[in-house]
């Protein structure tokens, strides 16, 4: 079998998605997600100008070899643009291989290790009463675990507290220039324990509660927050510091038993080396789409398994249904699965990407369609052209830029 065509499709049914479509001489089509929120066209350029010309004529069955050829062959390694482009090729090749085998992808990855995939949903509110309503709504949706994010007294806009349009798309992400949010670390550190206190008081001790710090603290601040939250038994504290400084997690780990989750902005196993081998974290959080695909993410998961570290694939709405499908196949197959983040895509997005994966009673299943089980409706995609959109930026109250 040979690849005879490679096309990059950009569509914006509410937010931008970048998809690579590979076609073989046997008429098999494979899809891969290359969406990098806020920097989409950089990946389009990388793919169209530098990768697509190399793909035609290759044997799609040689997934590992193609990955190494594109990764080592570029000489310039790593980075989100490169690894999103590689991920799209890798997932499209797995899609083709599984379709050629007449099997859903999870079968080629070793078969199902469980019946279904436990997820967590997002609850948020501008204040605690609004957050409690949102937790109630997620529980009504069936979610077995909930991430809680709350507005902070005195701050006008913070990460994770979204306003949505009529279609459920987050308004914050539709800005033609980055929206400016504001930040005060002390106000945040004072408020979060009160948020957990209120949610535990309302919903009891058993509900798994997660919280995303979104890279905003110093190591000692993160250590303090981890300690302050221990009595509420969080499921995890996510991205408590900017973890490109992996050594920082040593200090945090010495001070708290609150489980730690890291990795959504990482793109290779090297970014995790200290964190995993020194057992400084409990969950690895990379997305298939930003990590170079199923091939390298599986290797990370196997390394993590040696240290009893579990998986928690990043699953925001800015991963397309193609990237989400690949994640759900991997989740079903690996032994050290932990939890999957999941926020359903909008109806407009689901018209463009029809998927076999299902969400029932708070659990995902990849379905049994051959391949990853996603079809791209190119006509529907063409009706939603690219729109420039940035992620927000964050400033301290004196105007200094802070991590968002
Ligand atoms: C999460 C993430 C996202 C990111 C987003 C950036 O835990 O789901 O933090 O909300 O901010 O994916 O594009
Ligand atoms: Mg996060």
Overview of the structural elements:
By secondary structure, the chain is of the alpha/beta class. The chain has two domains: 102 residues, Enolase-like, domain 1; 263 residues, Enolase-like C-terminal domain (TIM Barrel), CATH 3.20.20.120. Helix content is 36%, strand content 18%. The strands form four sheets. Strands 4, 5, 7, 8, 9, 10, 11, 12, 14 and 15 form a ten-stranded mixed β-sheet that branches. Strands 1-2-3 form a three-stranded antiparallel β-sheet. A hairpin with a 4-residue loop joins strand 2 and strand 3. Helix 1 crosses helix 3, helix 2 packs antiparallel against helix 3 and helix 7 runs parallel beside helix 8. The longest helix has 22 residues. It is globular. The protein starts with a strand and ends with a strand. The mean pLDDT is 96. The structure holds D-gluconic acid and magnesium ion. Magnesium ion binds next to loops.
């Amino acid at each position: 079998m040979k690849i005879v065509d490679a096309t990059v499709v950009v569509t914006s049914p509410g937010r931008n998605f970048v998809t690579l479509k590979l076609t073989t001489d046997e008429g098999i089509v494979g899809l891969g997600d290359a969406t990098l929120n806020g920097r989409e066209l950089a990946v389009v350029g990388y793919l169209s100008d530098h990768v697509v010309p190399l793909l035609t004529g290759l044997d799609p069955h040689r997934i590992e070899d193609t990955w190494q050829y594109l990764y080592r062959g570029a000489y310039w390694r790593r980075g989100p643009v490169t690894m999103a482009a590689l991920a799209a090729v890798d997932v499209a090749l797995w899609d083709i291989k599984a379709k050629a085998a007449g099997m859903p992808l999870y079968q080629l990855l070793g078969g199902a290790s469980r019946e279904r995939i436990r997820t967590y949903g997002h609850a948020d509110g501008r204040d605690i009463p609004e957050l409690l309503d949102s937790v109630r709504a997620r529980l009504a949706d069936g979610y077995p675990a909930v991430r809680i994010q709350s507005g902070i007294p005195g701050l006008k806009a913070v990460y994770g507290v979204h306003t949505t349009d009529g279609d459920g798309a987050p308004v914050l992400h539709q800005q033609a220039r980055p929206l400016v949010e504001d930040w005060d670390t002390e106000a945040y550190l004072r408020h979060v324990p009160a948020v957990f206190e209120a949610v535990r008081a309302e919903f009891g001790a058993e509900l798994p509660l997660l919280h995303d710090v979104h890279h905003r603290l110093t190591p000692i601040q993160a250590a303090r927050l981890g300690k302050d939250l221990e009595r509420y038994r969080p499921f995890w504290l996510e991205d408590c510091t900017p973890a490109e400084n992996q050594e920082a997690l040593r200090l945090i780990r010495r001070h708290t038993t609150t489980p730690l989750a890291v990795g959504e902005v990482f793109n290779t196993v090297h970014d995790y080396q200290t964190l995993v081998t020194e057992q400084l974290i409990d969950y690895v959080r990379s997305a298939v789409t930003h990590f170079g695909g199923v091939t390298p993410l599986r290797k990370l998961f196997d390394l993590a398994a040696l240290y009893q570290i579990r998986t928690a694939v990043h699953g925001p709405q800015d991963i397309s249904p193609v990237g989400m499908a690949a994640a759900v196949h991997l989740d079903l197959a690996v032994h050290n699965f932990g939890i999957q983040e999941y926020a359903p895509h909008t109806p407009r997005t689901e018209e463009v990407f029809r998927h076999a994966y299902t969400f029932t009673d708070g659990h995902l299943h990849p379905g049994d369609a051959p391949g990853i089980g996603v079809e791209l409706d190119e006509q529907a995609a063409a009706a939603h052209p690219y729109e420039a959109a940035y992620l927000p930026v964050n400033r301290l109250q004196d105007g200094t830029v802070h991590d968002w």
